[in-house]
Design brief:
With 481 residues, the protein is mostly helical. It has one domain: Up-down Bundle (Amino acid/polyamine transporter I), CATH 1.20.1740. 74% of the residues lie in helices and 1% in strands. The chain has 21 helices and two strands. Helix 8 runs parallel beside helix 10 and helix 8 crosses helix 12. The chain starts with 16 loop residues before the first helix and ends with a helix.
Length: 481
Amino acid sequence: MSRPATDQPQNQHRLSTQYIVFLVIAAAAPLASMIGNLPIAIARGTGANVPVAFLIAGAILIAFTTGYAFIGRRVVSTGAFYTYVAEGLGKPLGVGAAYCAIVAYGSFALGLAAACGYFDSQVFLAVGFKVDWTICAAVSALLTGILNYRSMDASSKLLAVIIVVETAVLVVFDGSVIAAKGWAAFPLSSFTPHQWFVPGVGVSLMTAFTCFVGFESGALYSKEAADPVRSIPLASYVSVILIGSFYLLTAWITVGALGAGAAKARAVSAGGTLMLDLITQYDGQTASDVAGVLLCTSMLATYIAIHAAASRYVFALAREGLLPRPLARFDEARNVPSAATLFVSIVTSICLVGIALTRTDPYAAIIPVLIGMGTLGIIALQAAAAIAIVFYVLRRKKEAGAVVILASQCAAVGLVIALAAVCTNFTLLSTINTPFVAWLPGLYLATLVAGLFYSIWLRHARPHQYAQLALVEHHSEVASR
C-alpha cells in the first residue's frame, strides 16, 4: 500500500541534491572528526596503518550505498532506516529499529548541544571572558531550533558555508604538509599488507566508522526533497565518496606529518591536541587558533544536522501513531515537520537544564557518553538497514543484478563487524571506563525488545493501525530513471 504522490510538498523551500549533500556532510562533521577521532585511531589503534581503516570503512560504506540507492529509488519515506528495516525484515523489527533511532539521534543531539556549549565557553575563556557552558549550550540549542523550524533550506545554506570554511582549514594543512615533506607526506608503509590486521585494528575501524556517522541521513529528507527518487540516492553516493576520500587523504598525510615510524608514539604523547599541534607546526599558531574556533562551528553544523534528523524520525513515527499524532504536524509553507522540530528542541532544553543542575563536568562525563551512545545506535541502525537491504534485493534478484546483491552482502558483513568493534570498545568511545557506562548499550536491546512486543500487540489489538505502519511511496525502475 502506498502513500499518495500528493504527499510531496510543492513550494520554494524544497531541498535540491546539493543542499542534501551539505546536510549529510555536516552531520559527518569533517573538522570535528579529524580533530577528535583521528588522534584516538592513531594512538590507540594501528598507528601509521590508520589510513587502511579509513579505506576499509569507505569501501564498505560505498558498498552499502549501492544497496541503499537501490532501495532508495524504489521506497521513498521520511522513515529512512525504520522503513527500510520494515521492508526487508518485517514491521516488528522495523518498529523496534525506529524507537532505537529516536534514542540514538536524541542522545547524539543532546550530546552535541552540550559539546557546543562546552567548546564555545572554552573559546570565550581563551580571549578573557568566563561564560558558563550552559549559557552557550542554551544559545546553541535556541539557534538550532530557530534555524530548523524556519526551514531546512535556510539551515542547509548556513551549513554549506560552515562546511566549506572548515574543510578549507584541513585542505590548507594537507597542502602545507605536502609542501614541506614532498612525497614523504604519503608514506607507503601505511599500506603494508601484513600490518592491515595488527592489534588495535578494532579501535581504528571503530573510529573510522564513527567519522562517517550521519552519511545515511539523506533519506530522512524525502518529504522535503525536490526530487526524492533521484536526489536521495545521488546525495548518498556523492556524500560518502567525498567524505571517504577526504578522510583517507587527511589521515594518510597526518601520518606523513608525524612520520610513519613515530606516528603512534607522538599521538600518544600529544593526546587530544594532536591535530591542533600539527596545524601549529605546519601552518602557524594563528591557523591553529582559527581551527579551534572552527571546531565550534563544526560542532554547531553537526548539531543542526543531527537535530534535523532526530526531528524527522519523531515526525515519521508520530505520523503512524507510534508517537503522539500531534507531533506529525507538518508546515507546508516552510516545508518542515514543525511540531517534531519543536519537540526535539524542548526535550533537549529540559535535559540540558537537568544536566546543568547536577554540576557534572560536561567534557569528562556528559559529552562523551551521550555522543558515544548516539554513535553506537546509529552504527547499529546502519548494520540493521544493511541486513534488511540484503533481504530486499534478494527478493528482487533480476531487478537488482549481481553487483547490487554482492555489494549489499559485503556491506552487511562489514557493518556487523563495525558494530561488534564499537560494542567491544564502547568505553573507549565514551572515554569513561565505569560499570554503569559499560552497560549503557543494553538500553538499545531493551528498546528493540519493547518495540517488537509493542508491534506484535498492535498487530492483534489494532490491526488497522498495524497495517498502516511503514507505508511508503513505491517507485518502479522506470520511474526512477
